[in-house]
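step 3/5: co-fold with adenosine-5'-diphosphate
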Amino acid sequence: MSIKTLPDFWFEPRPWMDGQWHPGGETVTVRNPATAEKIAEVSRADAATVTLAIEGAVKAQREWREISAVERGLVLKRTAALLLARKDEFARLLTAEQGKPYAQAAGEVEYAASFFQWFGEEARRVYGRIAAHPEAGREFFIEHKPAGVAGLITPWNFPLAQGAKKVAAALAAGCSAVWKPAELTPLIALAIGPLMREAGLPDGVLQIVPGRGSVVGRVLAEHPAVRVLSLTGSTATGSALMIAAAPGIKRLSLELGGNAPFIVLPDADLDFVAEQLTRLKLLVSGQVCVTANRVFVHADAEAALAEKLAVKISDARLGNGLADGIDAGPLIHRQACTEVGALVEQAVATGARIVCENRSYESDATSRDGSFFPPTVLTGVRDDMRVARDEIFGPVIPLLRYTSVTDAVRRANETPYGLASYVYGRDLAQCRAVASAIEAGIVGVNEWRPLKAEIPFGGIKQSGIGAEGGEEGLREFLETQVISMPKPVIAS
Ligand code: ADP
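step 4/5: write tokens
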């Protein structure tokens, strides 16, 4: 079996500030979750370093906001091209650090590049307007201006793409940014620093500060120069950040947790559903805020769907994502396995049944020390079980029976979350009606991965505020100024 190697590092494992590597403080070991092998020792930014990073970003923003939008866009589009040209290196690093299989990592590099490309194009499409004034001889100018310095906080499941969404939108808007990657996956973020410099980004416009959420997050939330905070993380972290940002009245853009319903309508093609659901749940081994968390299936179809899913899930190969032919990798760490395991155990103890478990990773000697969890199909899951109420963040597919579609929709909405959802069926009118009735930021109809740079993506209820992607993604980093003035008249 051939195993891909780590690329040679073109970056250093410490904060990237003002176009250089900055001394960090305490170090943390980054390990490959598939093998537990050490990849790097990363120096974290302490509070004083983050403050310096913010000050550097303040200086850099003064020039960056004055550069033409076309020029700003060009830097972002060149970043997209460089990322794609170096897709293999980035994908190998991402797999080693995060654990997802190489093919998924390569897909994430392309996805990240699509945001640099999209916002590189959108940078030149920031339009204001002139509005009629109620008094004669005057007019309003309405302008959208960069908000200032943006604090960007990202998680470990899509450490490159979640960063790309925020960095590209903030920089396109004319903001400078201080990016704090997740503790467990700082390397892929640090790898972006020199890449963007090569793409022509002036020093200081993007500062990258690995560190603890409680330390870096607090400084970003409290520093008066940071005007926008954009977080992708858990709902609990979003809530903590809102509280920390409250005294300074900061703009917040939050992409938080989910508990996505996946409604299989009675006329759905079950082979298609099984194939799509398997792909969705094996993506980053289910550690995705938009993954299907509750699969509602008609009581008459539950057994058939469970059987088809069992075949698909059993076919998958789990192991070290740097090896060939791997379909799913490990969870991020052992603790995650314990937590997902507890949800499955509680479900089984209260009446659910395990239909299949895939432990193919046990035959991969290189993954002996990895934090793997077996993809699992559960039937007979009820709404009150923890596996249906909590965000699972693992490759578990819980099937929940329904007898009426109206009831399935009602139960699908009985959650404090409202991020993604899925509807599968043959009758598109029925799919459309069900999709409209679901309380969620995005609904995929017969589509397991509806997320693209071109569309706004964001949650409702406790899943978040604001959107990423689309033209809306740029607005998160713009503020509106109105100038009310006399209409100029021709001097005679
Ligand atoms: P996950 O469960 O996906 O790890 P978290 O919400 O714990 O989600 O982490 C997402 C990001 O938020 C990480 O970069 C983490 O360091 C950061 N973070 C955690 N706690 C805080 C906090 N109190 N303030 C700001 N950022 C935080």
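step 5/5: annotate
Residues 102-122 form the longest helix (21 residues).
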